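Anyone have tokens for Ankyrin repeat domain-containing protein? Sequence:
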Amino acid sequence: MPSTPLPPPPRPLRRWLLAGLMLCALAGCWAAPPAEGQRLPWDPGDYFQGQALQLALATDRRKAEQVRWLIRDQGVNPDRLFDKGDMPLVAWPVFNENPEGLRLLLENGADPNARKHEPQRPRGQYRNNALVLAARSKNPVYLKLLLEHGGDPNTLSSNEESLLHVAYQAGQWRNVQLLVQRGARINEPLFAKSEGGQALGHDTVLNWYSGLGNFDKAYWLLQHGADPARRMWLPAEMPDRAKQAQRMPILEDIFWLPVKPEMEAWQRKCQTYALARGLKPPPMPSAIKASRKGLGLPTEERDIPLPSVEEAKREQAAEAQKAAVQSVSDVPAG
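Reply: yep, here.
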């Protein structure tokens, strides 16, 4: 026997049911997370108070008029506002992944180099700033914005590391490139020692990449002025200092370091770059010799094929010609 359909509820009851369904639907909308990109990762209320919090909130909400009003009309100085961990307010949009907010602060006069100074500290008196955070970021837009608004590419972190090293340690090659292109000192060693105004040592950005066999990046650095012939620096009390100080570890890597197959062509490019400029292969160090032996590779210098000087000059001339043609083709039509 077919079931008899239930009669519809009385009109007032239907209205209540519909209202309930609508409320449930609205509650579901309110409970749902916002679309991707609308919600920022961190709450400024956990980091700032007072005027700093007002400006951080306006920045998070990308309220251009409010940011302008707070800074220019109300005199809120973002260069003198810091969070509980001594981060300057201009670094907040970098921390909170908000490039538009960073642009608003910079366009309204925020100093990209602002940082807290604590002279009582024995080390790290200058705390980290927006540039240090940006150098670590996967998105180069933050570093680009800061540099375009006067950020110093030779800023040091609170650990006295260059931004180049900060970016390298974070695995951010695009940030390394950007810093070099904007004037970072490419041949300044990490924790540089100096004598007579000259920075000593080989521990430069080129060494960090060549030492790991990343010769594609090493070649780019060579083309942008990196010096492969820098010598080791050792303290005066080190034994065998005179002999070790003659070593050129970057060239040792370029000529003798065993590499993965995909890096062999790039290593050869680095070799031709050095040879074409009159740099000779240095003696193979014992550590590289042991590494080659463990891999079953030749360990005698005479058994390792290298480009001749003539080949190097030809290949480098061809590279230069190719680069010149590319630069002409990149010029926009007038």
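The domain at 42-185 is CATH 1.25.40.20 (Serine Threonine Protein Phosphatase 5, Tetratricopeptide repeat).
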